[in-house]
Amino acid sequence: VYAVPFNVPVVPVSSRVSTKIQQLLNTLKRPKRPPLSDFFTDDAEEIVEVPQPDPNTPKPEGRQIIPVKGEPLGVVSNWPPALQAALARWGATQGKSPALTALDITGKPLYTLTYGKLWSRSVKLAYTLLNKLGTKNEQILKPGDRVALVYPNSDPGMFWVAFYGCLLAEVIPVPIEVPLSRKDAGISQVGFLLGSCGVGLALTSEICLKGLPKTPTGEILQFKGWPRMKWVITDSKYLTKPSKDWQPHIPTANTDPAYIEYKANKEGTVVGVAVSKVAMLTHCQSLTQACNYCEGETLVNVLDFKKDMGLWHGAVMNRIHTISVPYAVMKACPLSWVQRVHIHKARVALVKCRDLHWAMMAHREQRDISLASLRMLIVADGANPWSVSSCDAFLNKFQSHGLKPEVICPCATSPEAMTVAIRRSGVPGAPLPARAILSMGGLSHGVIRVNTEDKNSALTVQDVGHVMPGALMCIVKPDGPPQLCKTDEIGEIIINSRAGGNMYYGLPGLTKNTFEVIPVNANGVPIGEIPFVRSGLLGFVGPGSLIFVVGKIEGLLMVSGRRHNADDLVATALAVEPVKTVYRGRALPSKAIDSIHQVGLYCLALVPANTLPKTPLGGIHISDTKQFFLEGNLHPCNILMCPHTCVTNLPKPRQKQPVGVGPASVMVGNLVAGKRIAQAAGRDLGLIEDQDLVRKHQYLTEALQWRAQTDPDHVLYILLNAKGVTVGTATCVQLHKRAEKIAAALTEKGSINTGENVVLLYPPGIDLIAAFYGCLYAGCVPVNVRPPHPQNLAATLPTVRMIIDVSKAACILTTQNLMRTLRSKEAAASVNVKTWPTIIDTDDLPRRRPPQIYKPPTAEMIAYLDFSVSTTGMLTGVKISHAAVSALCRSIKLQCELYSSRQIAICLDPYCGLGFVLWCLASVYSGHQSILIPPFELETSLSLWLSTLSQYRIRDTFCSYSVMELCTKGLGTQTDLLKARGVNLSCVRSCVVIAEERPRLALTHSFSKLFKDVGLSSRAVSTAFGSRVNLAICLQGTTGPDPCTVYVDMKSLRHDRVRLVERGAPQSLPLMESGKILPGVRVIIVNPETRGPLGDSHLGEIWVNSPHSASGYYTIYGEESLQADHFNTKLSFGDPHTLWARTGYLGFVKRTELLDASGDRHDALFVVGSLDETLELRGLRYHPIDIETSVSRAHRSIAESAVFTWTNLLVVVSELCGSEQDALDLVPLITNVVLEEHHLIVGVVVIVDPGVIPINSRGEKQRMHLRDSFLADQLDPIYVAYNM
After folding, report:
1. What are the coiled-coil residue ranges (predicted)?
2. How many Å apart are CA 1097 and CA 1077, to the nearest integer?
3. Which candidate, 116, 354, 431, 756, has a CA 20 to 30 Å from the CA of 847?
C-alpha cells in the first residue's frame, strides 16, 4: 500500500466583491472605451463554496523558536587533511587490515578487501583514468569531470575501488543504479541527472557490462533520455599499474565537489546533490564524534553502499571493517545481518526498520545468536511512523539475545543536509528517552498537541537524538518565506553546517531555494547572514533539545488546507487487518483513513502483488506509480473511487434568476449595455416576375412535366454502385414516365384516394425518386421510410412498422426483394406481418398512364411527410407543404447557384431532412444533374465517394458525418495510394456535411488535413444545419465568407453566457459556424423560459421564421397545443406579430468582421446543441458532447463514449477498444478528466464493448436508448464502477 499525492483540481477562490473591484480598477486603467460586457459577467463567474474556518482549529501558541546548536566539533591532531589521505595512510601502514567483506547470495563471505588492496587498486584506477583511456597524446578525463558509477548492489568491492579511484584522480563520481531495461522505473529521469551533470563516461564491472541490455548488433542500448555514454570496465586485469614515480595528487580538502549523490524528488525528477571535499571530510569527522567510532571496529551495513548513510558510515576514515549485506541476500535470508553481527562480534549495525521487521519474522528462537557485541544499532529511517513499533518489537524479541535497549539509535538524514541528527548510545541502566504521543488532528494543522483522548488518532514518535556536532538547526514554515516556527509548531528542519550538501549540480535556480536559505522572524526580517540548507524533513524540537521528525516535505499531502503525511496514511492502511475477500475489504482502508486522519480517500486501487514500479532496493517508486495512475497503466484488479466525499471545492450550484425580472427589462438591460439583440437573416428570396416560371415552379409535379417537355433527354440522376459504375440513370422524360406508371398503379391496384398517405420503402436510388413523384401525380402524400436491415430485422423492422401505423398509410410502395422480406418468417418473429397495408412492388409495372395528373387546389396542401427518430428516441413526423417545398428548393438553388449545366455528388441517406430534399427534390426544381452514391456502398469500397468527385471533376458535394468519418478512419493513412490512383480533389469547391447537430470541428478538420495531400482545399469543407421544424436553416453555399470558428469559454457557457476567448485559452471550446443562413430565413435567439429575445452574448434557443418551415407535426390525435407551441410561436415582447418556429437547439449569433455579398457585416449562427439533450447539473447547463470529448481524450483505449443523467448522478458509458485489463484503469481517468475540465463528479462509470453505444443513421448517439438499456440492465458491461 502507498499513498499517491493526487491533487484534486482546485477552482480559484473568488468572491463577487473582489472581481467587481478588480473590474473597476481595470476600467479606470483604460478609460477611453469601457468594455461594457465586463460588467455583465457577474453570475457567469463560478463561485467556489469556501469552507468557513473552524473556530476550534488549533493554533500555535508558543514563543518563536531559538536555533539549536550542536556540541562543538572536536579537533583531533591526527585527523587527515582529506578523506583520500586517510585511505593512503591505512593502505601504507595497515595494509593487511580488512576494509570490506562482501557476501554471496547465500549470505556467506565471498571476499574480503584489505586496506592495502583497496589502496593499490584505487591508485591503479586513478592512473588508468587519467592516462590510459585515450590515445597516447590525448587525455579523455580531466580533474573535475563527472563520471557515472554503474555497479550492482551485490558488488560493494568494485564500487569502493571505483569511488576512491575517482577521488584520487580528482574526477567526480556520480553513482547511479544499474539500468536493467528500457522500461526501468524513472530511467529517463536518470538521463536528466546525467545530462545536468554533463556525464559522458560510465565505469562498470565486466560482469555488469555483460548484463546490460544490448541492441541486436551487441552495442549497449541508448536508454531513454540518456546522453551518449562511453563505457569503461574497471576490473583489475584491465587497469594499468602506474610507474614507480607516479603518485596521485592529494590536496587538502577544499570546496570543490568530491562526489554527486542522486536524489529523486516528488515529481520523479532526479537531481544530483554535490558534496564538496571539505563537507565530505567534515561529515566523516562529525559522524566519528557522534557515533564515537574507534579505529578498527566492525560494522554490518544493510543499507545501499552507494549513497546516503550506507556510503557515509562505510567510509575509510576510521579503518573500520565493513560487512556489506546486499538487498538480494536480505530477500533470500532476512536473518543474515543478525548472523553477521553474531559471527563478527560487530560493534555497529546500520539498518532500516524493514530489516528489523524481516529479521523478527525470520527468527526461530535460535539460541546461538548473540547481539551483545552491539554498541549501536543505527536505524536509518528512525523517523518513519512505523519505526517506533519496529524498534520496540525487535528489542522485545532480541533482548534475550543480549541486545541492550540503550544501543538502539534512530537517526534522520537527507541527501541535501546529510546527517541531520542521531541518537547517541546511552549509558546502561539510564532511563530511555521519552516518546511523544501527538494528536493527528493537531499535526494536520501543523501544531503539536499531546493526544490524551482517542488512542486511534494518536501518532507515537521517537526522537532521533541531538543535532550533529558543529551544526546549527532551525525549524521554519514549510511553505512561503522561511519564517521561524513557534515552539509548538511543526516546520521544516534547516541546518547550517560545514558537513552538508553544497548544491544541485548544474541547477543554480533550484540550488538557491534549498542551499542558501536565510530564516526570517515573524516580521519578515532576516535573523542573520548565515545560509541554511533545507533538509526536506518536517519536525520539531522537543524537551532537552531532542529532535523529533514527523515526515518529509515530499510525503506531504495538502488536502483542503490541512497537511497529511503520506507515510502516516500508508501506516494506517497497512494496519487495517487485511480482509480475505476483496469486496468485503474494499471500503475498510477508506473508513480507517477517514476516521483516524479526517481525510477522504479519493481512489483506492488494489493491484496484483509485485506489479507497482519499484526502486532498485525494493521500495515503491512513488512518482512512477503516480504517472502510471494518471496514464492508466496501473492495471488494478479492483478499484474504488469516493469523489463525492473528497471533493469539497466544487463551484457553488447556480441559483436561477427569479422570474420576477421580466423579459422586457432584460431587453432594456441589453440595450443599455450596448448589446445587439441576437438575430440574423439570409438574403431575400426575391420575387419571381415571369408568370411562366411561377407556373412551372409552384408545384414540383409541374416542374417535372415542364422539364420532360422542354428538355426531355437531359440526365437528372446518375446512380453509382460500389465499383463506381453507373447502374441507373434518369432523364427528365424517363423520370416523368416512371412516375406516371406508379401513379396509375396506385389508383388501379391500390385504389388510393387523393390525400391518403403512402409509405415508400426503398434502398437509396432512383426507384425512390420515381415513387415519390408517382405519389404526387396520384395526389397521395408520400412518407419516406428507411427499409429494414435484412441482417437485423429484430432491431429495424419495429421502427418501420411504427411509422406505417402512426402515419396510417393506405399502401406501401417497395421493391420485390423488400416485399419478400416484409412477408418473411424472420419478419413475422418481430412484427405482425398479416396486418400490412396493401403492398405494391414497383419493379415491373405495366406501361400505363393515370387518367390525369393531380394538381393541388392550393400550395398550402401537404406535399409529403418527413419522419425521423430524434437522438432522444422520439419519433416525429412533420408536414411539408407544396409551398414550403418550392420555397426550400428555390432557397437552395440561390445559395448553391444550381442550374441545369451543373453537376453535384450526393453521398448521404435520402430518408429525411435535407438529405431527402437534395436526393429527390432539388434536381427536379433546379435542373442540375445529381450523381447519387448510396453510403452503404462505401462499406465495400471506401474510396468510392472521393474517386467519384475526382473522376467527374465535381465542384459541389454533400455528405453525412458517417461518410466523412468512414473516409477519415479508413483512408486517412492511404492518401499516397489515392494519389497513385490519380485521385485529385482540387476541383472540389464546396463539400457540405448535412446534419442536425453542432458542427464536429475535430472531424472536419482532420478530414481537410488528411485529404489536403490529394488536392482538397482547406476552405472546401463546411456544414449545414436543419431541424425538425425547418429542414434547412443554414447551408454554406458558393458565395459569402468562409465559415468562421470562435473559441468560447466553457464556464460561461454553462451559465448560458457566451464569452469569446483566445484560441488555446484554458477551458475554451472551439465552435464552427453552421454554414450561411439560407435566403428567406430569419433566426433569433430566445430565452426558452421567458420567450424573450436575448442579447448576442447569451446562449438561447434558435427560433426560425421562413417560408419553408414545416406546417406542423403530423399528429393523429391532433395535439394542437404542442404543435402550435413549436411551429407558430410569438415572442413574449419586442416583435409581437412574426410567427416563429422553435428549433429545439441552443445557439448564439455573433457579428463578425467579415462582409457578406451585400457588403454588410456578416452575422454568423453557431449551434451549440439540442435543448432536449442538455444535462442540468448543479443548476448549470452541460452539453453531453463536451463531457464526451473530454472522456475520449482521457485514454487511448476509449473508442467512443456517451453520458446521461440518472437520479442526479452523471453516468459515463465508455467503449473499450483495448484489452480488458485496461477496463479498471479507465475509471479514475474518466473521473479525473470530468472533474478537472467540467467540475462535475461522475456517479457511475460503465465500461462496455465496442459498438454498444447505439448510433442512428445520421451518425448521432442515441443517448436515451442507451440510458434505457442501462436502467433495464441490458448493457452486458465489462465493468461498472459506482463512485461512492
Report:
1. none
2. 19
3. 756
